[in-house]
Write a structure and sequence with these properties.
Two copies of one chain form a homodimer.
Chain A (H helix, E strand, L loop, with lengths): L3 H12 L3 E5 L8 H4 L7 H19 L5 E4 L1 H5 L2 H17 L3 E8 L3 H11 L12 E4 L5 H14 L2 E7 L6 H4 L2 E2 L2 E2 H14 L10 E5 L4 H10 L5 E3 L9 H4 L10 E5 L1 H4 L5 H7 L4 H19 L8
Parallel strand pairs in A: 1-2, 1-10, 2-3, 3-4, 4-5, 5-8, 8-9, 9-10
Antiparallel strand pairs in A: 6-7
Helix pairs in contact in A: 3-5, 3-14, 6-7, 13-14
């Protein structure tokens, strides 16, 4: 299995855009068509609807983008049946050639962290879930990240460590000043160090960072502080981040960042500009239009325009 | 559903000890008897072995202690079949009258945090997993904790927020000085504030804190800083913490802290002092002996001796 950062670079270059489509299924927002005939009180039936919905999104976006980011929480919310749906969705996305970044924000200490890493990372049969990458929380410190890095290297997988999150409360602890810099820059320094020790041919490492789109200046600074680190940028679209806001996340080739959009793409059928145009039954066309719109915005207003198309 | 802290206080008082038994199944360490006839290459079969093992532990400890702490990672490591095993183990523990603290160290932002909370918290039918409490990571900040607190209050459940973890690398970020105090004391202040807003009749709140047993002085100080916060103390036994080390976690009545032991109890059959005494087939007697030993140690060397027996 080749290096994760190299696979990501190749996929982004091939697609000519840095769009990552977030798979955040929520029952109330599914297209009406997919809720028909389903008993909302049955977690099993809702899980089936989630799988159909996510696979329907994947069918649309697979020719357009490099990867998807399933949000574990929404599947976990449906109990064991939801976890089976998550497994099915990951497998289907991989089958369609997409990279899968599982958003689980996991972490623990020692052998427990190793269990999470073994569970989720890697595309080969050794991985029970088969994700290409996993989001990881840093609070437990350097030794909690080591097992993830080790397994990621072995399996050609990656991790994205939370550095600066897009929510208003992200500042509570992340922005606390320690010495001459905020906590999140300390986390960034550790991430960059680990990236530097796991470089692929593309110049980026196995260890990436999550940096929200809602803080453009911090994003630009973090790009400079972490020159060998892939950035996963959430917060575009529904959370308020624009293409101009994320421009600072890229390197001069238009590489080095993937920008996630969940609700703005997968629930595009409910956005005013698409609702009337496509109606409830053509929800997949709305997904396609919203994906293409985001691709165009990022190519127009960020260095991602320098990627081959 | 009554207040979580009140239920926890009542359970600890009834048992007369603060022992929490960690359910961390690991294939290689299961009693030989439970591995017989199981194909280790089958995640499905291993999941069945995990369920049998954990339920076997529960049968032994249910009359002795107030609760168990399943570690999600080890179940997630077995894919969807492992998640079904986790569900079965939680349900069985509750059926046997034990409180269930699921160790998942989850968190995310906004409605995603709400999905995790809805997934795991609460004993009623609204909860797909049915845990009494969940461990939660604080890095995402104050607004990421709010949905957990809200759901916990609604459902009579609780959360335990990571404050100071027991691993050596816990110091990487947690011990960074911000102003005149380390980061973990900022987290402690937020937790205590939230506990104070969710008090039960017992004088403790819905929001607890995870504080490792491996830092006795910090444990004592955090007890003082968080007088209304239940502490979940991991790191006893295999990780090096002794009864004397955790003495500072309790209030003067012997309440306010639950002390977790995973490997030292559930894999007691492999500990030198029990291996010869019980042999491989009487592994449940080893679990019972190790549990009673820990109860006796805590009652002898900590304020927990003041609990009714």
């Amino acid at each position: 299995m080749s290096h994760f950062a190299d696979r990501l670079s190749a996929a982004v270059g091939r697609c000519g855009n840095p769009v990552l489509v977030g798979l955040d299924p929520r029952w109330e927002q599914l297209p009406a068509l997919l809720r028909e005939g389903i008993d909302p009180g049955s977690l099993q039936q809702r899980s089936v609807a989630y799988t159909r919905f996510c696979c329907g999104v994947i069918d649309v976006v697979a020719p357009l983008v490099s990867g998807v980011k399933p949000q574990a929480a929404f599947f976990e919310e449906l109990g064991p049946a939801g976890m089976q749906a998550l497994w099915d969705v990951i497998a289907y996305a991989r089958k369609r050639g997409l990279l899968v970044v599982l958003d689980g924000k996991r972490n623990d200490i020692g052998t427990t962290a190793a269990a999470y890493a073994a569970a989720y990372l890697g595309a080969d049969e050794a991985s029970p879930w088969g994700a290409d990458a996993l989001t990881v929380s840093p609070y437990l410190g350097d030794d909690s990240l080591t097992p993830f890095v080790d397994v990621a290297k072995q399996r050609g997988a990656g991790i994205f460590v939370l550095v600066k999150t897009s929510n208003p409360g992200g500042k509570t602890f992340q922005d606390l000043m320690t010495g001459d810099r905020p906590l999140y820059e300390h986390v960034a320094a550790l991430v960059e160090s680990q990236s530097g020790q796991t470089l692929g041919a593309c110049g980026y490492g196995t260890v990436g960072a999550v940096v929200g789109a809602t803080y453009p200046e911090q994003l630009r600074k973090l790009r400079a502080l972490m020159p060998r680190t892939w950035l996963l940028v959430p917060g575009f679209g529904a959370q308020g981040g624009s293409a101009a806001d994320v421009a600072g996340a890229f390197d001069e080739r238009g590489m080095g960042a993937i920008v996630n959009n969940s609700r703005g793409i997968i629930f595009a059928h409910a956005r005013p500009e698409y609702r009337d145009r496509f109606g409830p039954s053509r929800w997949q066309q709305a997904v396609e239009a919203a994906t293409r719109e985001m691709v165009d915005q990022l190519r127009a207003d960020t260095p991602a325009g320098r990627l081959g198309a």
